[in-house]
Amino acid sequence: MRPAMLAAAFLFIASTGSAQFRRQRSRSGSSADLAAVELSPLQGLGKVSLGRCPAARCLYVYVTPWCGFCRKATPLIKSLQSELKFKGLPMRVIVGDDREDKIRSYAAELGRDTLLDPEKKIRANGVPYLFMTDKQGKVIRSRQGMPDDLDEAVAWATER
Fold it and tell me: pTM surpassing 0.85?
C-alpha cells in the first residue's frame, strides 16, 4: 500500500474511532432522559435515581472497563470524589458499556457506591464522560475526557 493511502486510512480510522466508540456516539440522546434513569450501586442496596440529586448540583463520571484513558484516570477520579465530598458537591461514578463481570470488577476499584450500567442506559459522548445535573437530573453541563489534574477537575466541577 502506498504511504499516502496508509496515511489516509489512518486518519479515517482515527477520526471515526473504534466501533465501540461509534456505537456510543450514536446513542447520544437528550439530557431529559436521565431523570428516569435508575442504576444499582455496586453494594447492591436499592437503586439510585439520576433524577434525584441530593444537592443543587451533582457530578457524574461515566467510565468503561475497556477505556485506557478511564483506567489511567482512576486515581484522579478517586481524588476528585474525595475533594468534592469535602466541598459538599455530590459525585457518583458510573461504570458501564461492557460485560457485567468486567463492569463489577472495575467498579470495585472505584468504591462500593459506584453505579453500574450494564444495560447502557447512559448515553455518553465518548469516555470518560463527565456531566453535571441539577436537582431534577437535567444535564446542565458535560465534557468528554478527564481534566489533566485535580485542580482543573475541581475547577470544572465547581464552576457555576
Answer: no
The fold of 22-158 is Glutaredoxin (3.40.30)
Are residues 72 and 128 in contact, defined by beta-carbon separation less than 8 angstroms?
no
Query: How far from each other are the two terminal CA atoms of the chain, in whole angstroms?
Result: 52
* Residue 129 DSSP class: E
Q: How far apart are CA 125 and CA 123, in angstroms?
A: 7
Domain map of the chain by residue range? 22-158
Phi, psi of 156 (to 5 degrees): -65, -45
Q: What is the pLDDT of residues 49-108, one digit of tens each?
A: 998 889 999 999 999 999 999 999 999 999 999 999 999 999 999 999 999 999 999 999
Non-local CB neighbours of 37 within 8 Å, separated by 6+ positions: 49, 50, 51, 121, 122, 137
